Amino acid sequence: MPSPEHRLNTLLQRIETAARNAGRTDRVSLLAVSKTQSADVIRALAAAGQRAFGENYVQEAGAKQDALRELPLEWHLIGHLQSNKAREAAQQFDWVQSVDRPGVIEALARHRPDTRAPLNVLIQVNIDAEGSKSGCQPEQIEELAARIAHHDRLCLRGLMAIPDPEHDRQHRASSFARMQQAFARLRSAYATVDTLSMGMSADFEQAIAHGATLVRIGTALFGPRE
Ligand SMILES: *Cc1c(COP(=O)(O)O)cnc(C)c1O
Question: For the domain 4-22+35-222, what is the CATH superfamily, name and number?
Fold first, then answer.
């Protein structure tokens, strides 16, 4: 197994190549998706220079955040957020990418501690209208954005999507393209918006070609999950 540093550098190269091939001149960042990975694995990747880590579960993340408190890491919640976990999420994370309904917005704003910077939030969009329980419909973006912007404990940073993995490449291109358009609209309305989170191990190059500014990658970085 190659070292964490080697795997990280190989992946960063692939991201850079994809950005160059797409004619991108802005920055594309890597979120290391560390769900099911131990605090020690995260520590090794942090030592290699990675700062931003994504977790799906508030409780699983909490244990690792406690163990790694001395490191200057940036934690993103990327899993579906249950309302009864919103308070802990607002306290533990730097970003919540899975904001998809008014109740969660209100709860995150209410519970974000005054001692911390405003919580960065992305609106998760259910771009393929799946039967999935996560993500708002594209028509709801505007209303949710206005609600988020109303709270000074929250900072609206952009959009997140997980296209249906069952679809083929061509269908995925259309999902990514619709996200890119929605992102452009949102960015022209809000000065704080700078992040389009889409693309995972299997499709990040395609996402970058459609304007992703943040790719969320687990398997291609850590190997297959147990
Ligand atoms: C697990 C997960 C990822 C990473 O998926 P890989 O295919 O392992 O790169 C990205 N985003 C979300 C929301 C996830 O749940």
Answer: Alanine racemase (3.20.20.10)
